[in-house]
Amino acid sequence: MTNSEKLKQLRDTYKAGVRVRLIHMYDEPQMAKGLEGTVEDVDDIGQIHVKWDSGSRLALIVGADLFEIIK
Known about the structure:
Layout lengths: L2 H11 L5 E6 L11 E7 L5 E5 L4 E4 L5 E4 L2
Antiparallel strand pairs: 1-2, 1-5, 2-3, 3-4
């Protein structure tokens, strides 16, 4: 799979408005397990930008951070 295909897949999966739940965020200990947020967008390098319910705006990094979509 090419990088552009991976990026398209991420953007198709994590569209604006999708709700996510944090399991673990690498190198960000203030981000608690179970924190929920709303996807705002996926940037050109594949980071998933989230507006967290806590008021924070930190991006998720696929492969480094652990998270799940809230169904």
